[in-house]
Amino acid sequence: MTDETLHIQAIDAFIAATETADPDQRATLLSRALAPDIVFWGPLGRGVGREAVSDFITEVVRSHPSGPCRMVRTTRVDAPGEWARFGWCYEDAEGRVLLSGTDVVHVTLAGDIDEIVVFAGPL
């Protein structure tokens, strides 16, 4: 399996975790995608650990005033070595884009994301 394949699998599992309202399914997906001590640099600050990422998904992604929204990967995964980046958008139930951005992730040799840096909005 190539490094790029590992990166894509981890990123897509992370995105799938944002899609589910089921906390157990989210925890399973996050355990496939993220290292236990993941460092998450999000729009609300820095969090550490899978639970911090799960809390962000619950509080921000799943609890949006527009109702449950979804995160969609909008670009291919660009994966030079141990780093990867991808574009995303956050859309409401009707498919309207509420926010878009780019995430940069560091992926371990085992294929787990151990750092995510979220860049929300245009540069």
Low-confidence segments, given as residue ranges, are: none
Q: Main beta sheet, described?
A: 6 strands, mixed
Mean pLDDT: 89
CATH class: Alpha Beta
Order of helices and strands: HHEEHEEEE
Please list the strands of the largest sheet in the order they lie side by side: 2-1-6-5-4-3
What quaternary form is this? single chain
Task: Give the second-level CATH assignment, the architecture.
Answer: Roll
Indicate the overall shape.
globular
* Helix/strand structural class: alpha+beta
What would you note in describing this structure?
By secondary structure, this protein is of the alpha+beta class. It has a single domain (3-120), classed as Nuclear Transport Factor 2, Chain: A (Roll). Helix content is 33%, strand content 37%. The chain has 3 helices and 6 strands. The chain has a 6-stranded mixed β-sheet. Strand 5 and strand 6 (113-120) form a beta hairpin. Helix 1 (3-19) packs antiparallel against helix 2 and helix 2 (23-33) crosses helix 3 (50-61). The longest helix is centred in the N-terminal third of the chain and has 17 residues, at 3-19. It is globular and about 40 Å long. The N and C termini lie far apart (34 Å).
Descriptive tags:
Nuclear transport factor 2 family protein; 6 strands; Nuclear Transport Factor 2, Chain: A; alpha+beta; 3 helices; 37% strand; NTF2-like_dom_sf
How are the elements arranged and paired?
Elements: H1 3-19, H2 23-33, E1 34-42, E2 45-48, H3 50-61, E3 70-73, E4 83-91, E5 97-107, E6 113-120
Parallel strand pairs: 1-6
Antiparallel strand pairs: 1-2, 3-4, 4-5, 5-6
Helix pairs in contact: 1-2, 2-3
Protein name: Nuclear transport factor 2 family protein
InterPro entries: NTF2-like_dom_sf
Organism: Microtetraspora malaysiensis
